[in-house]
Amino acid sequence: MSNTVIQVDLTTMQQIKTAYTPFLKEKVPQGGVFSAKLPTCSITAYKSGKILFQGGNHETEAAKWGSPVAATKTVRSSEPVSNSFLSTLSAIGSDEVGTGDYFGPITVVASFVDKSLISELQQLGIKDSKQLTDEKIILLAKKLIKIIPYSVQILRNEKYNDIQATMSQGKMKALLHNKALIQLLEKISPIKPEAIIIDQFAVEKTYYNYLRGQSTIVKENVHFATKAESLHLAVASSSIIARYAFLKEMDTLSEKAGVTLPKGAATQVDRVAAQLMEKGVDLHGFAKLHFANTEKAKKMKK
Ligand code: MN
After folding, report:
1. pLDDT, tens digit, for every residue of 60-104?
2. How many Cα neighbours within 13 Å face the side chain of 18?
3. What's the CA gap between 102 and 122, in Å, rounded?
4. How many angstroms separate the alpha carbon of residue 166 from the centre of ligand 1?
């Protein structure tokens, strides 16, 4: 083993930080409290209370402060695992928003929830964003993004419409999920999640077919589950952050359009689309043009 991880309380963490003052590095990774480079090893302390000692004399240095915690046991994709067990793990969860909305982008978020944070997030009221009002989502997302590491991918309308001619929405989603997972794994490295849970939008085989030809495909310890937002707080957190990112994009687009763009794909959407067409606005940068709403709006337009 080339590293040692210990778990400490926050007071101890501050003491350790102080002890390493001359060795502190300026850059601290996402979710980190401090990083230090000693002649003998490197140290990274995380908000979760975990401190990672790497290289050289990692064991000796770590032993000054605590005893090592057991190495993370990951749950392989092929392992049959119950949902109730999955929900207790330190996991990355990913989810997407905006796929059924005529106006606005698709946003995909992956986030990492260490199991030590599960009860805190439960108390905050983190759950599937579909069960929350937008006001509550904004409130919770602002808290979440300070607590957990995450990655946001936004596919804006111009690009969506350009690639839509040759690519299914399923493939777009798969590419976005994969990219979010790659970025987040880099961010939290060297910490590895015990499992990765994707809110299932396609069967596993189809998902990986979509990703064929990609240079990096996240596959290790990946699990697919339907209604995964209620299965693991990492997926629920991702659903909240993704909706928050979507709402912010919608605000920007509404401002650009000079009208509040409605969510969803119902009649109100057709009406606003028709209004914009009458004003001569090109919807390419605002809407998912292949939706039936485009034709309906054209008919509605005077
Ligand atoms: Mn979902």
Report:
1. 999 999 988 876 677 888 777 788 888 999 999 999 999 999 999
2. 6
3. 32
4. 24
CA 112–ligand 1 middle distance (angstroms): 16
Between the CA of 242 and the centroid of ligand 1 the distance, in Å, is 10
Q: pLDDT (tens digit, 9 = 90+) per residue, 17-36?
A: 999 999 999 988 777 899 99
- What is the distance in A from the centroid of ligand 1 to the CA of 101? 14
* Model confidence, pTM: 0.79
> DSSP characters for 117-134?
GHHHHHHHT---GGGS-H
User: How far is ligand 1, taken at its centre, from the CA of residue 131, in Å?
Assistant: 12
Query: Cα separation of 239 and 270, whole Å?
Result: 26
**For residue 211, how far is its CA from the centre of ligand 1 (angstroms)?**
19
Q: How far is the CA of 236 from the centre of ligand 1 (A)?
A: 9
The edge-to-edge listing of strands for the beta sheet with 195-199 is 150-155, 106-113, 91-97, 195-199, 222-225
Burial readout 57-77 (b: 16 or more C-beta within 10 A, e: otherwise)? ebeebbeebbebeeeeebbee
Q: What is the mean pLDDT of residues 151-180?
A: 97
Quote the CA–CA distance of 114 and 45 in Å, as a whole number: 14
User: Nearest CA to 218 among 108, 143, 136?
Assistant: 108
Give distance in angstroms: CA of 108 to centre of ligand 1.
9
- Taking the centre of ligand 1 as the mean of its atom positions, its distance from the CA of residue 31, in whole angstroms, is 25
